[in-house]
Amino acid sequence: MPNDGKVVPLNKAAAEHVNQPASARLPVVLLQVRDKSALQLKQALQVLFDNADDTLFEMADRALNNADQNTFFEAMRDLRLKRKSIERGFLEKFYETFVRIGHYEVADVPPPPLSYDKLALVPNDELERTVALDAMVAKVFSRDGFALGQLTTRLNVLLSKRLDDATNPLGPAMLCDYFLQAGRSLGVDIKVKLIILKLFEKYVLTDTDQLYAEANQLLIAAGILPELKAAPARRAADRASDRPRKPEPEAKAEAKVKSAQFDEGVQEVFGALQHLLHDLRGSISPKMEAPSEALPISTNDLMRLLSHLQQYVPQQAPQDDYDLRYQLEQLLTRVSVKSGKFRVVGVVDEDVINLIAMLFEFILDDRNLPDSLKALIARLQIPMLKVAVIDKSFFSRGAHPARRLLNEIASAAMGWGNRDDYQRDSLYMRIDQIVQRLLNDFVDDPALFSELLVDFLAFSNDERRRSELLEQRTRDAEEGRARADLARHLVEKELNSRLLGRTLPQVVVRLLQEAWSRVLLLVCLKHGADSAEWQAALSTVDDLIWSVEPHDDAETRMQLLELVPSLLKSLRDGLTSSAFDPFATSEFFSQLELLHVQAFQRELTDAPGSAQEDDSMVEVIDEIVLTAPGESVPLEPQIRLPDNDPGLLEVDKLRVGSWVEIQEDEEFKLRCKLTAIIEASGKYIFVNRTGMKVLEKTRMGLAVEFRRGTVRVLDDTLLFDRALDSVVNNLRKLKA
Question: Which residues pair with 685 in a beta bridge?
Fold first, then answer.
């Protein structure tokens, strides 16, 4: 049988494999089977990726929360970026398998499919994917196992080493293996991976009957076991159920019903809005002295006029200076004069224009948006109007990409302040790029909004992850500081209860205040105030004080003699564990030793020595106040407010994650987010949008700020939804 031939490769990967010696060992007919199958698989993969965007977007649209929506949008972006590499990787693995079966050596038998048990996933994810893959492979074996078995039998005639259905290069297990290995770089979670695997089954594995039929036919034409009984053709009903992308009339009818229901819902919402907008009609009309009969322009003509205006949106004009309805009116006047006919905007389109204009009036007057963002959003009025003219679901569907893009931009920029050098800010630059892209490229295809939304979500999620990491560090540091403050207050209390009002040697007072207080603080933080270690550290304080007091009877003198060695050991161990200055420690111990020696000498002679009387003694009359290095004692507001005070009630409404704006002085306002309420200290910690701490307030201090009117809570609900609610409420009032 001939063993060489001239085959035209499908792509570069194919060409490289054809030129390898191992490929040359394959019979011509096997090369034909390989290349014809590769062409079909390549086309199926292209269909898969063409439909993946729509599928993931639908999943995002149906998601119950923003986290799930973000997951699907990020997956869309990742899949779009890595599509070509996955297609190429799949075909490379496919060709490599044929290269391996061309090696006749025993050591080079085809490898078994990838063991799914070895995939680097957590056990639950691994189990889910393994179950899905097993089901996919089993379905192909059940449906097309006969044709696959015939193909395997015919391939074994051409090869010296036997294949089975599992190691057949065209078998479902191997096809899944190619796809899994090619898609290893996808950074998506298991939920999305299962969806992509389902798409692989739908658009690739569904057509394995054709794949095997054509491969068998090529081998039969070359005289390879033509006598084998032909595989039965798959029934039309089976194919219809397996290939939903080519639905039967019933499926088409069902899809049409669903589409009609969707359209009906959209029309119902827009119809209600039109009813409210009725009294505003006629405001957009050309100014002509003797108008003839009005002739509405078509929606397509309106889109062309808007595209013309879109090219001349001012860069940095004040937001109030650009009136879209006035610009349209002037343009219609010129069109009417030029054509000699009185041209007006159609009723439906005029309603959309009025609604968008009112929405943007609300948005550009919203106190929750920083002025720098308003200037950018103002330039999006025409692109948003064009989307609304094309697709009325813009007003009724919360997950509409254009509407969601506007909401996400507003949410991401909530923390901008008027002190920020925003023009150098990465977020500002990204939003500016989006605005420029829409003004330059958007004509009438809303898919551009989906693309920009996916990219912006990926960007903002990266920004959010960085800020959340810094926020967490801030919270941890503040909680640690609060614990340290509580421990410090406890140490102060214990020392003051033992020292206040006493007259003691100055060295002892200094040792307890400067050195042993650190030991107590560390023990309290490490072991807690209920621990045996804490009680032992306090006992050392009591023993030290007792050891320098006068003792007259013989029994207490013996106790002192027995106590001093263990006392000194406890003191030395404690100071060493707290890393106290060893030179200062030596000085303390030298002076303490002198005190104890003098005490023993006095007791032996029973006569008070002058050294004792002249030793530096101090009366502790001031409370000990301990401060952390570099800290000063914070000044708390002296005012005390009743529990029902309006300011305190406002403070108690605050929740972690709330954004506030604080008037620092006449010129500057600070925007910050409440990231933590430290219960131990009662402090409210605020960060900027990068997660860096910018403000610390007590509950009472915040209440005073609320009473003064220098702080207000920002509304961080969805911008477009707030605007639409406000416009609808205003229209209802006008209607009434």
Answer: 676, 696
Q: Please report which confidence band the pLDDT of residue 362 belongs to, taking 50, 70 and 90 as the band edges.
A: very high
Per 3-state DSSP, the chain is made up of helix, strand and coil in percentages (nearest 5) of 65, 5, 30
Q: What is the DSSP letter of 512?
A: I
Instruction: Indicate the pTM of the whole model.
Output: 0.62
Secondary structure class of 671 (helix, strand, coil): strand
36, 404, 27: which is closest to 224 by C-alpha?
27
Contacts with 287 (C-beta within 8 Å, 6 or more apart), sequence order = 329, 333
The answer to whether 113 and 177 are in contact (CB under 8 A) is yes
Tokens 């089976």, residue located: 238
| Strand, helix or coil for residue 623 | coil
Which tokens sit at 253?
Answer: 């009818």
Sign of CA dihedral 22, 27, 28, 31: negative
Confidence of residue 422 (pLDDT cuts 50, 70, 90): low
HSE value, Cβ hemisphere, 13 Å, CA-based, for 165: 14
Report the alpha-carbon distance of residue 398 to residue 671 in Å, rounded: 27
Q: Two tokens at 676?
A: 């933590």
Distance CA 457, CA 451 (A): 10
Residue 85, both tokens: 């590499």
Q: Which pLDDT does position 611 carry in this prediction?
A: 41
User: Do β-strands 343-345 and 295-297 pair in parallel, antiparallel, or remain unpaired?
Assistant: parallel
- Specify whether the CB–CB gap between 352 and 388 falls below 8 A: yes
Closest CA to 71 of 412, 460, 458, 402: 458
Taking the C-alpha atoms of residue 406 and residue 412, their distance in angstroms, rounded to an integer, is: 10
Contact yes or no for 87/11 (Cβ under 8 A) = no
- 298's CB contacts (< 8 A; 6+ apart) are 346
Among 546, 552, 547, which residue's Cα sits nearest to residue 602?
552
- Is residue 531 within 8 Å of residue 523, measured between CB atoms? yes
Q: Pull the structure tokens for residue 62.
A: 């149906």
Secondary structure E strands in 57-181: none
Going by C-alpha positions, the residue among 372, 375, 457 that lies closest to residue 416 is 372
